[in-house]
Amino acid sequence: KKLIEYTGNSEVVKIPKGVKVIDDIVFRDENKIRKIVMPNTVRTIGKEAFYSMLKDLLRIKFSKKLTKIGDYAFSNCAG
User: Fold this and answer.
1) Does 68 score more than 80 pLDDT?
2) Is 69 strand, coil or helix?
């Protein structure tokens, strides 16, 4: 499974269990998210997936099975 789009407005985002890939630019420029929780099924984070979330993103619980983080996935994040 691949997460290709985020349309919510929650401060805490829980990636659904079973998602293996967070696609490119899924969360780019989101400004309300403060915490991301990934299940251990996530193996890949795409390029610029969390780009420019500025200071709002404070915590990320990474998958224990994460093996690849794309280019600039967390660029321009100051949290």
Assistant:
1) yes
2) strand
Q: Which two tokens stand for residue 67?
A: 């093996």
Report residue 51 CA to chain centroid gap.
9
- Give 68's DSSP letter: E
Asked whether 5 and 27 are in contact (CB, 8 A), the reply is no
What pTM does this model have? 0.90
Hey, what are 71's tokens?
A: 């280019």
Token match 């193996």: residue?
A: 43
Rg (CA), the chain: 11
Residue 63 is encoded by which pair of tokens? 């998958």
